[in-house]
Amino acid sequence: xxxxxxxxxxxxxxxxxxxxxxxxxxxxxxxxxxxxxxxxxxxxxxxxxxxxxxxxxxxxxxxxxxxxxxxxxxxxxx
Length: 78
What we know:
It is built from no helices and 4 strands. 0% of the residues lie in helices and 47% in strands. The chain is elongated. β2 (33-37) and β3 (42-46) form a beta hairpin. The chain has one domain (2-71). It is mostly beta strands.
């Protein structure tokens, strides 16, 4: 089996009081995705430089597709 890519899907929301007019990225946890392939000794990290902020009571969806070619194979240890 060959793995051609990964689809990374996250849903997040903002609670009342989470954001204020002077917020900074240090206060907000970014969406960071880490994938480790122990079999091949490889690591991929995706840390988007820009994310959207949903309105209060709404959800935001983050979707990322990683085309990995031949970097992962069925049975690899992660």
